[in-house]
Design brief:
Keywords: ANK repeat. It is a single chain. By secondary structure, the chain is mostly helical. It is 53% helix and 0% strand. The longest helix has 16 residues.
Length: 100
């Protein structure tokens, strides 16, 4: 974050047990933080690529990969995603936010 710009990689940064900020927000039942993290990631993903429909350029390919390899699908060392963690801990409101 040398230039002050947040990237998807920053959002997916993991602690020693593989926990991301999203894992921590789910664990602490911080619905608003979950929303903010997911909104920021969607902004970052939507800014990738070009404006041509059905394009196969390098930037558009990176955008498609970023959609698939997102914060919600990032597992910790126990292979738990934030989605799984929300369900396993009974965080139903947060599960709804993540699932949208």
């Amino acid at each position: 974050m040398d230039d002050g710009n947040v990237t998807q990689e920053h959002l997916k940064k993991q602690k020693i047990r593989g926990e991301t900020a999203l894992h921590e927000a789910v664990r602490h039942d911080s619905e608003r933080i979950v929303e903010l993290l997911l909104e920021e990631e969607m902004k970052l993903i939507s800014n990738r690529g070009c404006s041509v429909d059905m394009c196969n350029c390098k930037d558009c390919a990176a955008r498609m990969l970023a959609k698939k390899d997102n914060l919600v699908s990032t597992p910790n060392v126990s292979r738990e995603t934030a989605h799984f963690l929300a369900a396993a801990c009974g965080k139903w409101k947060i599960l709804g936010v993540i699932s949208d």
